[in-house]
Automatic annotation (TrEMBL), chain A:
GO terms for biological process: D-alanine transmembrane transport; L-alanine transport; L-isoleucine import across plasma membrane. It is a multi-pass membrane protein. The keyword RNA-binding does not apply. GO terms for molecular function: L-isoleucine transmembrane transporter activity; L-leucine transmembrane transporter activity; L-phenylalanine transmembrane transporter activity; L-valine transmembrane transporter activity. Keywords: Amino-acid transport, Cell inner membrane, Cell membrane, Membrane, Transmembrane, Transmembrane helix, Transport. It comes from Streptomyces sp. gb1(2016). This is Branched-chain amino acid ABC transporter permease. The lineage of its organism: Bacteria, Bacillati, Actinomycetota, Actinomycetes, Kitasatosporales. It comes from the Bacteria.
Amino acid sequence: MHELPQQLANGLILGAMYGLIAIGYTMVYGIIQLINFAHGEIFMIGGFGALTVYLGLPSGVSLLAAIPLMIAGGVICSVAISVAAERFAYRPLRTAPRLAPLITAIGLSLALQQAVWMWYPDATKDRSFPQFKGEAIDILGAHIQRGDLFVLIAAPICMLALGLFVSKTRAGRGMQATSQDPDTAKLMGINTDRIIVMAFAIGAAFAAVAAVAYGLKNGQIGFRMGFIMGLKAFTAAVLGGIGNIYGAMLGGVVLGVAEALATGYMSDVPGMELFGGGAWKDVWAFVLLILVLLIRPQGLLGERVADRA
Amino acid sequence: MRHRSLLILTTVLTTGALTLTACGSRDDDSKSSGGGDTQTVVIGVDAPLTGDLSALGLGIKNSADLAVKTANKDKTVPGVKFELQALDDQAQPSVGQQNAQKFIGNKDLLGVVGPLNSGVSQSMQKPLNDATLTQVSPANTGTELTQGNNWKTGDKKRPFKTYFRTATTDAIQGAFAAKYLFDNAKVKDVYLIDDQKPYGAGLAASFKTTFTELGGKIVGTDHINPDDRDFNSVVTKVKRSGAKAVYYGGEYPAGAPLSQQLKDSVQIPLMGGDGMYSADFISLNKKAEGDIATSVGKPVEELDSAKKFIADYKTAGYKDAYEAYGGGTYDATWSIIEAVKAVVADNDGKLPDDARAKVLDAMSKVKFDGVTGPVSFDEYGDTTNTMMTAYQVTSGKWASKLSEAVK
């Protein structure tokens, strides 16, 4: 078991990335009860936005200096697409039955994938993404790559900023009010349309940060990367209690760690030799999800007991 | 409100319908024969032209295109003009099957080159066989495609008479890889990983058989999802196992990050098959140095017979490299051209009515000196050329280390 710290670190890094993406699912769901399946693609577009900025920079700029610009580029692209999607794909359907926007989201997801595939140069195959040079750093017995430090630093900062924003600012409190009861919030003078746009924008910005982390970690991005990451992030959001921002991050980390531990140790359990390893980790992740939902249907940190459909 | 949405719906439908019709008419154009005395023969190409395996797929399409152009220029078959119909299978079996139906529907089409993936081939073999349409794959290495599902127990049975290939089988490739790693690279402890696709799992299984026969030890096995890009948990297990190398049955899109993450934590090489032997493997992986891959045939650059192919490919000015299967594709396409030539020569310089059946008959007798060496097919439709080459990434490039014909 001496590599336990390493597996926990692997899970934590992956989980923090899931958590950042899950914020987008959870905020949008918390306010308009829409599962925004196109959010995985918003994440993917953030990655391509960041890559574009990097390629546009003069050579010789150090990666460390480029990162703030890359994040800015990714955030701008993600937010622009996400806000446009809200305006043109979801808002016209806000009064439609719930299934309509859900299907729209799935369609939008496919359309965005194809758009990047077609219009981004050479995106028909994976594009390589810049990475930090240098050896890994040892922290508490775990080997951590330099690129992975990014998500470990960025995720807590983002969460702290979001927490402060939601609880302290006027717009944040407006957001809480809208999620509790949109009609009453409107009567109280809150511009709910603006709040909804804001939720989409914040989710997209977090997804872009996650995309930069994904690129730095894996050294490549591709037009299909949003699908599997989006699915996992959505799972994380449900696991943590959809609608709760801290739940999204907690769910992400729990999911990431569960995957790492299932890969690492499940095959060592007597009788489970065949059910371990990388191929079964997703199965175990979903087994965990089902168990949690059986015991706590509202998710780990979820509050809402009955859905207000 | 209601009227507006109706309007939008109508617009969308009309646009969609127009686009579809446009596609249809374009297809028809390409099919129309040249008129006069020349007859048109279409050769189909099926490969992943988009998606993460498109580097290999585009190399296949271009090389087939080159063979067709060369045949037309040299008038290899008098009175016959060759055309290419290239379809994208996105590396998906279901799309491959639809493409097979399109090929069957084209009356002038007498042979299909492709696909890249063994899994796609499995879905195309039956429809093409039912239509007696010859298929030659330059890249499929799945042993069961030619020798049936029970080949491991020695009960070889050819499932589809229309299926041929210029690539060797996984059985041969895996055995060669195991021998190279054990005898030449002197590695005795290997961790085995595959991506659970027919190609990857088949290759890993045949590697395992030979490697343990030679006396090597498989210190652990794992499977990964080829759509994942984070394999750190698996890598941590590899490190614990004390393996001296990892053998990966799979393709470069997942192989590249796997190799990089492996070397982030332990300095051992990753070895793979022809699905890993691509320039993209190196461009996507900053720590590829020392990795090993086997591929089919001799390196095209080292063969005298291939010099003309390389020169012609350059002259033709294709945007993408010919990659691992360029030479094999050229030979696969050329074998169909040779078969058509034999059929036409037997029928007073004209195409017979049952051209597809005749071409299939002629395929088993095809024999010529191709880009990759002498080309002919055995009773299973497998190539008689079992040359394999091991490559290693040296100073950022694939460098050939050993070429050997496998018995």
